[in-house]
Inverse folding.
């Protein structure tokens, strides 16, 4: 196995999997191959009692569609969910609808679907993004689909814990009042990360550690057992990372 | 709004009541009962809408209307019309029966980028075919499905 060449998404998957706790009930939404892989890896590593609800899993049998999954979350039975967006700001607000002016948008997207409700009702939220730049991390989002850190009103169960990108692990910091830098990924400096983030990550004057390197056991499981299950749900993603089956 | 039981503040929105819902189901019978994909929200839609039209892959005897591994039964109480149209979900897929037609979807996305190419798409696939059979014939001759 070639462990010297690790795809940035593989690092993301491994880092994200370490954030998952044993006995969690966790779910992923549409277009979420990285979180889905992270959950499968966690279940193979340190979280054997993890329950994974992976949207699009051909083997997952529901009684009654998303309606049922949403009801499950509203009852407080979901510990962890993964969200993403086209823009994310320092307060953990997510935009999935409009870039630019609402009346004359530069880009119009399909929207947030269950993002807002899920962000209120899951006990913990992790945001992921396949890019890390100042177009994604903006001072203020152009449209708010979900406020993942605002616990003023209305009542909510959980909030944002972390943000994972191809170059950094960020976390939600209540005292700081926003998202801060927790650790850098190998080959990426604090300076590079700060320059590609459109708001202050609170990294100055602090020692920022690098993540513990991706382990051989993690990478091996990811490329074998995890890949073969992931392929049932996300074949094109698997082709992109590991080549055609 | 305050929940009278827990005291929690919730945001509330009125329920959507569609005039018409169109769902695509695996099978239906002459009583109006259907079996549809359990991973979708079809039963919720059927129960929310004033009128519901169910497009089905096949018409079966009521005794054969069984949910199976990925199906869910919807009572005729919630269905106003059943339309038999095999491959009626094309170019999208129908679970356990046929996959999404990727080539057709890509052609559609390409066509939708410009007014005139989209007009040609509509002419070829929507306006000219007299019925679903003709539509499928045109799709088949186009190379995909």
């Amino acid at each position: 196995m070639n462990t010297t060449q690790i795809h940035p998404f593989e690092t993301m998957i491994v880092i994200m999997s370490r954030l998952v706790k044993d006995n969690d009930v966790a779910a992923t939404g549409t277009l979420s191959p990285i979180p889905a892989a992270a959950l499968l890896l966690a279940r193979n590593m340190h979280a054997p009692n993890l329950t994974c609800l992976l949207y699009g899993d051909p083997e997952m049998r529901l009684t009654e569609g998303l309606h049922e999954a949403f009801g499950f979350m509203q009852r407080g039975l979901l510990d962890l969910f993964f969200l993403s967006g086209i823009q994310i700001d320092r307060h953990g607000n997510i935009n999935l609808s409009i870039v630019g002016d609402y009346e004359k948008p530069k880009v119009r997207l399909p929207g947030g679907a269950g993002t807002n409700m899920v962000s209120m009702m899951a006990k913990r939220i992790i945001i992921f993004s396949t890019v890390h730049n100042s177009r994604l991390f903006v001072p203020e989002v152009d449209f708010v689909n979900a406020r993942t850190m605002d616990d003023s009103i209305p009542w909510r169960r959980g909030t944002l814990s972390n943000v994972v990108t191809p170059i950094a692990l960020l976390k939600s910091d209540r005292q700081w009042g926003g998202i801060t830098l927790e650790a850098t990924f190998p080959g990426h400096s604090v300076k590079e990360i700060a320059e590609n983030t459109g708001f202050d990550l609170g990294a100055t004057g602090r020692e920022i550690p690098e993540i513990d390197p991706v382990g051989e056991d993690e990478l091996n499981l990811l490329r074998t057992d995890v890949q073969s299950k992931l392929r049932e749900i996300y074949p094109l993603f698997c082709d992109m990372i590991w080549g055609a089956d | 709004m305050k929940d009278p039981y827990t005291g929690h503040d919730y945001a509330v929105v009125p329920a959507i009541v569609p005039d018409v819902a169109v769902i695509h189901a695996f099978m239906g019978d002459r009583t109006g009962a259907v079996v549809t994909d359990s991973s979708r929200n079809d039963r919720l839609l059927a129960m929310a809408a004033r009128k519901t039209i169910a497009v089905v892959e096949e018409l079966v005897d009521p005794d054969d209307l069984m949910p199976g591994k990925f199906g869910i039964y919807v009572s005729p109480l919630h269905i106003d019309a059943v339309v038999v149209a095999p491959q009626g979900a094309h170019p999208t897929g129908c679970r356990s029966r046929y996959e999404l037609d990727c080539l057709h979807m890509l052609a559609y996305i390409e066509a939708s980028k410009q007014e005139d190419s989209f007009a040609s798409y509509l002419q070829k696939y929507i306006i000219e075919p007299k019925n679903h059979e003709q539509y499928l014939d045109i799709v088949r001759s186009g190379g995909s499905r």
